[in-house]
Amino acid sequence: MGADEAGWIRAADRGDLTEGEPLGIEVAGRSIALYDVGGELFATDNICTHAYARLSDGWLDGELIECPLHAARFDVRTGKVLDPPATENLKTYPVRLVGGEIQVKLD
User: Fold this and answer.
1) What pLDDT digit, counting tens, does each position of 6-55 carry?
2) By the number of CB atoms within 10 A of the CB, which of 19, 24, 66, 91 ranks highest?
3) Contact 67/28 with Cβ under 8 angstroms?
């Protein structure tokens, strides 16, 4: 396994993720949300940076995820916070598709 292969971990099967429906998963003790935006895959921390709520329980509108608790919104592509009350960006993770398996790269 080359150095560029280090850190990649299986997150889900491609068939588990539906476009427009965030998927919350636990990977290596972290809560991560996966998103399919027009066939492109993205991954962020699943916990809102404002208050403890799972973003995978929220609403995905295009590339924007809205927290179910206080309606903070983030861009799933960059993790950038777009609407209060959140002020801190979301952590994002590289995602790739290997065969039918979605993998994320943890640091």
Assistant:
1) 899 999 999 999 999 999 999 999 999 999 999 999 999 999 999 999 99
2) 66
3) no
Token duo for residue 38? 């027009």
For residues 15 and 100, the answer to whether their CB atoms sit within 8 Å is yes
The total domain count for the chain is: 1
- CATH code for the domain in which residue 79 is found: 2.102.10.10
The three-state secondary structure class of 55 is: helix
Q: Give the range of the structural domain holding residue 12, as residue numbers without chain letter.
A: 3-105
**pLDDT higher than threshold 70 for residue 3:** no
Using CB atoms within 10 Å of the CB of residue 71, give its burial: 0 to 12 exposed, 13 to 18 middle, 19+ buried.
middle
Provide the percentage of residues in the chain whose pLDDT is more than 90: 93
